[in-house]
Design a protein that fits this description.
7% strand; 3-stranded antiparallel beta sheet; mainly alpha; 231 residues
Length: 231
């Protein structure tokens, strides 16, 4: 048993803190928030589930430009930020704004601004705790999936664009349309939550999206008629 414990510790140490000779130039190890963390329960950072990841802060091509001698533009910076976010996500981790601030030595406010701009400009979801775990005030995957759906994209296209499964996309769209139908009949929010077996905060978020995209009941009815639902 002692031998087994030592082997486990060696593996854990190598995963969380790999030796420098095992890293490429420009790479760094980092402990990111796990994609399986439940932030509502693991409020304090020290109690969150973490995931060790390897991040490419500088690629070989970027290093060849001698970045320490030239001031990089926001476009180059946002490309690096988005890249490391997706690298962490593919390894099961999520980087918060504070993590990115520490990695890139740029203020969290500036990073938030760059990420929001990239998401709107490219219609993508940059994986962070705010977008994947719905923590914070960032634009969540729910918002983007519903907006893409209302723009006429298919479930398969949305799944590819947002890195979600078609089933997950269907669930988001289905909940939104259910809330839309119940709202047309002026069902109270708490009753909607009971009927759909969803949290009241989720119902309120879908109602907010409905108010954002539909001016009146006729607009809502036109969408439902397009979906072959008579309301």
């Amino acid at each position: 048993m002692a031998n087994h414990m030592v082997q486990e510790l060696i593996v854990l140490r190598n995963v969380c803190c790999p030796r420098a000779r095992h890293l490429e130039s420009g790479e760094m190890p980092f402990l990111a928030t796990s994609v399986n963390a439940h932030l509502s329960e693991e409020v304090a950072t020290r109690f969150r589930r973490l995931k060790p990841v390897i991040l490419t802060v500088w690629t070989k091509e970027e290093l060849k430009k001698r970045p320490w001698e030239n001031r990089h533009s926001d476009n180059e910076l946002v490309e690096r930020i988005v890249r490391v976010c997706f690298e962490a996500y593919r390894q099961g981790g999520l980087l918060s704004l504070m993590d990115l601030q520490w990695i890139f030595q740029v203020s969290a406010c500036k990073i938030s601004q760059l990420i929001r701009g990239a998401q709107k400009r490219c219609t993508i979801i940059v994986p962070t705790p705010g977008t994947i775990l719905d923590s914070g005030r960032s634009m969540t995957h729910k918002d983007i999936i519903i907006e893409l759906h209302l723009q006429g994209y298919t479930v398969r296209e949305i799944a590819r664009m947002t890195f979600h499964s078609p089933r997950a996309v269907d669930n988001y769209i289905g909940t939104f349309e259910s809330v839309l139908i119940l709202d047309l009949y002026h069902i109270p929010k708490r009753l909607m939550a009971r009927i759909l077996k969803k949290g009241i905060s989720l119902i309120e978020e879908h109602l907010r999206l409905a108010r954002k995209h539909f001016r009146d009941e006729e607009d809502k009815k036109r969408l439902l008629a397009w979906k072959e639902v008579n309301a």
